[in-house]
């Protein structure tokens, strides 16, 4: 409807409506059919904060990482530095000349020679070979026991864990229940596991009754070590199986299918497909388990009361702390260097093979 003057209330439909926009204009897009122009405006650039302008990208990243590094320095760095510092100090004790309790003072490398060379200090000065029964005389025996436990347990756990992971990786009814049941030994605390196996390996325990034997599992030089190995393998094999199973899950199924089409047997598929592609996961599993086995303490300390036949480096450190914290710190540093050296060798040997395997996979794809 129009007013008396002849002008309309609404603008004509065919006339384009101009849009007034404040700010810079980037582009004007026109509609050829309707004649309507759309104005696209450019957004003003986002202003950076004063900190963002002052610091580069790496600097801003360090701001977020710094709190974690400070926490690690307090929790890990300080104890390590303190242990190294204490290892160069003499243990406190009685002065033979005055009979007074005095601080030890600087020891140089005598704490390290005490363990590595099995030299014990004399009250009047000088050193001599540590007598039998002294903890210093048991260092190399503890090294051998620790390495023996590590090599045997890690090997058995890797082989058995690989078999368990292969079975758990297949599709069958009740697979979820089997996976949950397998993880039970690993979920039980180590102290509880050690106490259970101690009861079983007692002279009148379950093992001797079932086997009909009279073996002193907790004191015999051979069988006490065998008992600790059995308990450790039972406890930690599920952990290895879990890590290996994670590696098996990422192997493509079409690789096995192509091998079957080519007529490869089950053993050929295992040796030429599974093992090569499983090297990275095996490296992680073996590395973690080796570092854990080198500091074994709970099982032998509880099952055999840490006797000389099953005394590991960790047990020797704890026993020495009761006699002198500074010499025990030196033994802790030696243990740390041993674990670091073994881990370095494993990463260099197995890690290089794992990286080569991954490069071959990339080229194949």
From TrEMBL:
Pfam families: BPD_transp_1
The keyword Transmembrane helix is annotated on this UniProt entry: yes
Membrane topology: Multi-pass membrane protein
GO biological process: transmembrane transport
UniProt feature coiled coil, ranges: none
PROSITE patterns, per the entry: ABC_TM1
Signal peptide: none
Entry GO CC: plasma membrane
Keyword list, A-Z: Cell membrane, Membrane, Transmembrane, Transmembrane helix, Transport
Domain spans labelled ABC transmembrane type-1: 143-346
Annotated localization: Cell membrane
TM stretches of this protein: 61-81, 139-164, 176-197, 270-288, 330-356
Family per similarity comment: Belongs to the binding-protein-dependent transport system permease family.
Name of this chain's protein: Trehalose transport system permease protein SugA
Organism: Nocardia macrotermitis
């Amino acid at each position: 409807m129009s007013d008396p003057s002849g002008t309309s209330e609404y603008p004509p439909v065919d006339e384009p409506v101009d849009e007034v926009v404040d700010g810079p204009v980037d582009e004007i897009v026109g509609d050829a059919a309707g004649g309507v122009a759309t104005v696209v405006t450019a957004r003003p650039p986002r202003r950076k904060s004063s900190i963002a302008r002052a610091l580069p990208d790496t600097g801003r990243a360090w701001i977020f990482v710094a709190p974690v590094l400070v926490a690690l320095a307090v929790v890990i760095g300080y104890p390590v530095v303190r242990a190294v510092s204490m290892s160069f100090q003499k243990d406190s004790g009685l002065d033979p000349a005055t009979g007074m309790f005095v601080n030890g003072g600087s020891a140089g490398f005598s704490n390290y020679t005490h363990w590595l060379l099995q030299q014990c200090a004399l009250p009047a000065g000088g050193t001599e070979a540590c007598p039998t029964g002294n903890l210093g005389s048991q260092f190399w025996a503890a090294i051998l026991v620790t390495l023996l436990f590590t090599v045997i347990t890690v090997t058995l756990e890797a082989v058995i864990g690989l078999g368990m992971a292969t079975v758990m990786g297949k599709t069958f009814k009740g697979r979820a229940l089997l996976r949950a049941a397998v993880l039970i030994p690993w979920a039980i605390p180590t102290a509880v596991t050690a106490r259970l196996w101690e009861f079983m390996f007692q002279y009148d325990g379950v093992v001797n009754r079932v086997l009909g034997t009279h073996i002193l599992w907790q004191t015999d030089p051979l069988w006490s070590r065998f008992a600790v190995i059995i308990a450790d393998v039972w406890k930690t094999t599920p952990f290895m199986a879990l890590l290996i199973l994670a590696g098996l899950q990422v192997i493509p199924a079409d690789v096995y299918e192509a091998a079957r089409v080519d007529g490869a047997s089950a053993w050929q598929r295992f040796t030429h497909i599974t093992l090569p592609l499983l090297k990275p996961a095996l490296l992680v599993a073996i590395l973690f388990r080796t570092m854990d086995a080198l500091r074994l303490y709970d099982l032998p300390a509880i099952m055999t009361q840490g006797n000389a036949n099953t005394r590991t480096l960790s047990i020797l450190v704890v026993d020495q702390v009761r006699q002198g914290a500074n010499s025990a710190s030196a033994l802790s540093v030696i243990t740390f260097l041993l674990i670091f050296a073994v881990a370095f060798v494993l990463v260099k040997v197995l890690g290089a093979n794992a990286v080569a395997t991954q490069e071959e996979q990339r080229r194949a794809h």
